[in-house]
Write a structure and sequence with these properties.
The protein is built from 16 helices and 13 strands. It has 482 residues and is α/β, with parallel strands linked by helices.
């Protein structure tokens, strides 16, 4: 039985390396440093077609992060519930392109969880302060790498709760409406849970969300929000806006917002500016402290690969530490040295640490700490560099191999074509065919992704996805039976 690698071969006889992506308008040396320019230069150097399987293999052979793939468990085709294992070798690796929804299992998580279970088994209650990873300090080992990924300073980051719970807790402190300033600005098609939280906070304070919400939308016939349109709203309505809250990377379109510019513009108008970092953290470099972001919330189960329902966290800028704002307290917000003294009054810890309420999930912290080791070893800048190439490579193959006049259907990108305005995700709008039918057929071929209406969301995650994964995916997409 052929493997999926052998079953899909892409013809390259009539594809020219001179084909450029629509966003490539620059010339000379600058063009050669863009992701598309790098891909073209390598194809010319190796004397292979950019659309050939050989090119994908060469990219993988020279990938400085190729060894990281072995740190993850890649599901086999036989393991997937909807894959047709009779068409391919059931033991061959599937094509997993759904890290924007749930990251794959890092192998070292199994080891770390085993250590925690052994400590629990052997030490019982003594494991709180003894053993290889004391339970009472389970949240602290996560912080050093998270600080680097978030661009944070000491005491600005802490893990706790889940994303939406943390958003509510942050709004208790940072959404402080007045008669003149009470509105919340956010993007159209924000993640539904974010919108639920924003609207419920508005109602809690006595405001009608239909009046107190300002949603910025893409322009007519465009697919993502322009930064200048956000800035224009802030300039015109900023004095009525209490909170600006956007997604660092938009979950539906994959757009990477200009967080620095939007934060500066919002604060210039007197607004508090917060960010949902669920799709940004571990995906793109962040510099929250330098950007002066007031607060952020995040989860850990997408690009951080800490497992479904993994623990969330918060960022609070150090310039907020001495502010007297309302918040809800719990015993884990005490300093570690006095936490177990059971004082009547809280001995609040510094910064983000003091926002904690309950004992965090020990096994979730254990999984997150282990999963973060891959980021510590790789570095977010190297991860981002590979991510740009992977995503550009996928876009190029789709443009040249599928979006042709003779094709049965076309793919339009909701995601910006500019690599600097997107992360790892591409959102593919299927035109001329049933997206669900295509999605179902891809699943039968052993591809994991997701579909929302007529849009298929795909993410090539640089820690565990290869260029061959991208090649195989586009080849299947091209030859799909519809």
């Amino acid at each position: 039985m052929p493997s999926i690698n052998d079953a899909v071969i892409l013809s390259t006889t009539d594809i020219s390396l001179s084909v450029k992506m629509p966003n490539q308008h620059c010339n000379g040396d600058h063009q050669s440093t863009t992701p598309q320019g790098i891909l073209e230069r390598q194809a010319e150097k190796w004397q292979v077609s950019l659309t050939s399987k050989a090119f994908a293999h060469k990219l993988d052979e020279t990938d400085p992060l190729k060894h990281m793939r072995d740190e993850f468990v890649i599901p086999t085709i036989g393991d997937l519930p909807n894959a047709d294992a009779t068409r391919f070798d059931s033991n061959s690796e599937s094509i997993y392109l759904c890290g924007h929804s749930l990251g794959l299992l890092p192998k070292r998580v199994r080891t770390a969880v085993g250590v925690w279970l052994e400590d629990w088994a052997k030490l019982g209650v003594h494991g709180h302060v003894h053993g290889r990873s004391p339970f009472a300090k389970c949240d602290y080992p996560c912080i050093p790498t998270l600080k680097k990924l978030l661009g944070a300073q000491d005491h600005e980051v802490m893990v706790m709760n889940q994303l939406t719970s943390n958003l509510h807790l942050m709004m208790i402190s940072f959404y402080r409406p007045t008669k003149e300033r009470f509105k919340i600005l956010y993007e159209e098609r924000a993640f539904p849970s974010d919108e639920y939280a924003l609207h419920s906070q508005l109602r809690f304070h006595g405001y009608d969300p239909n009046i107190a919400s300002i949603k910025v939308s893409p322009r007519k016939n465009e697919t993502y929000v322009r930064t200048e349109d956000i800035l224009d709203i802030l300039e015109k309505q900023g004095q009525s806006i209490a909170l600006v809250f956007f997604s660092g990377v938009q979950y539906y379109t994959g757009q990477l917002f200009d967080m620095k510019t939007i934060t500066r513009a919002g604060q210039k108008q007197g607004c508090v500016v917060g960010w949902d970092l669920a799709h940004a953290l571990g995906n793109v470099p962040l510099h929250l402290h330098d950007w002066n972001v007031d607060f952020g919330v995040f989860c850990s189960y997408k690009y951080l690969n800490a497992g479904a329902g993994g623990i969330g966290g918060i960022f609070v800028h150090s310039n907020q530490f001495d502010k007297d704002y309302p918040r809800f307290d719990g015993w884990w917000g005490n300093r570690y040295d006095t936490r177990f003294e059971m004082r009547t009054d809280i001995d609040r810890d510094i910064g983000a640490d003091g926002f904690r309420m309950s004992n965090p999930s020990i096994h979730q912290c254990t999984a997150l700490t282990a999963s973060l080791e891959a980021f510590e070893e790789s570095g977010i800048e190297k991860i981002r560099a590979k991510s740009k190439l992977l995503t550009q490579y996928m876009q190029y193959l789709i443009e040249t191999e599928i979006n042709q006049p003779s094709s049965k259907y076309q793919i339009k990108f909701l995601t910006p074509s500019d690599p600097e305005q997107r992360g790892a995700q591409l959102s593919l709008h299927i035109v001329g065919a049933d997206a669900k039918q295509i999605f179902d057929e891809l699943e039968r071929c052993g591809v994991s992704l997701d579909v929302r209406g007529d849009v298929i969301r795909v993410a090539a995650v640089p820690l565990y996805n290869s260029f061959l994964d991208v090649y195989r995916f586009v080849t299947l997409l091209k030859n799909i039976r519809i």
